[in-house]
Each structure stands twice: as structure tokens, then as C-alpha cells.
Design brief:
With 124 residues, the chain is an alpha+beta fold. It has one domain. The strands form 2 sheets. Strands 2-1-5-6 form a 4-stranded mixed beta sheet, with helices on one face. Strands 3-4 form a two-stranded antiparallel ribbon. Helix 1 packs across helix 3. The two termini are 22 Å apart.
Length: 124
């Protein structure tokens, strides 16, 4: 499966085609994001001094959800690019708003995994 999607409230809002090459400037941006996170990230109210790949992905997914919520599609697309580049088995990202709280779910699976885009599916 070459395409990866972001679903916001059950609606596909971003799509990434893994078969297209990533431009060099975007490759550098993804690398700079990793360097910035080397100093730690804040996740769910706690500081993670040395985040692993999944903690970085959760942090970036949260930033992407906030960007989409505020209408910043450029930032959301940059965050999505990071996720697709760093999580080779990422199939989809689901973002929902429930009671003024954004929730994200990273759908990870093999090439045969078909993401369920139905509304109401959320979590971390």
C-alpha cells in the first residue's frame, strides 16, 4: 500500500504517496525535526528526555492534530511527511475531537492492513 492518509473526524484530509520521491529540502526538514526532538519532548503532561521513535511519532502526531484543528494545513503536511518517513509501516492517522480534546491514533500494520476510516475510532 503506497498511499497513507490522515482522517480528521472521519474525513480524509491529507494523503501521502510513498512511491513519490521526497524532495531534498523536505528530507533536510525531517532530519532537523529529529535533531530538535533529541533534546526531549513533552507528551501527555510529562517530559520525555530521550524519546524513542514511537514517542517522537506521538509528539509529531499531536502537533499535526493541533495544526489541522487551527487550519494550518502547511504545518500539518510537514508533520505528516515526518510521520510517513519515520514510520515505514504507518497506514493511516486518525484524529478526532471529543469534548474539546483532540485524540490521535497511528494505524500501523503490514502492506495488507486496510485502515478503518469510520468516525468515532480514536485513541493513542
Amino acid at each position: 500500500m503506497a498511499k497513507v492518509s490522515v482522517y480528521y473526524q472521519g474525513v480524509e484530509v491529507l494523503q501521502y504517496d510513498r512511491e513519490l520521491p521526497l524532495p531534498i529540502l523536505q528530507q533536510h526538514y525531517v532530519t532537523r525535526m529529529d535533531r530538535r526532538m533529541d533534546g526531549g519532548v513533552d507528551l501527555d503532561g510529562r517530559h520525555v528526555a530521550v524519546p524513542d521513535a514511537m514517542e517522537r511519532a506521538q509528539f509529531v502526531a499531536g502537533a499535526m492534530a493541533q495544526a489541522l484543528s487551527s487550519g494550518d494545513e502547511t504545518k500539518a503536511a510537514a508533520m505528516f511527511t515526518y510521520l510517513v518517513q519515520r514510520l515505514p509501516l504507518l497506514r493511516a492517522v486518525r484524529i478526532d475531537r471529543q469534548n474539546q480534546r483532540l485524540t490521535t491514533e497511528l494505524v500501523i500494520g503490514d502492506a495488507n492492513t486496510v485502515p478503518d476510516s469510520s468516525p468515532g475510532r480514536s485513541g493513542r
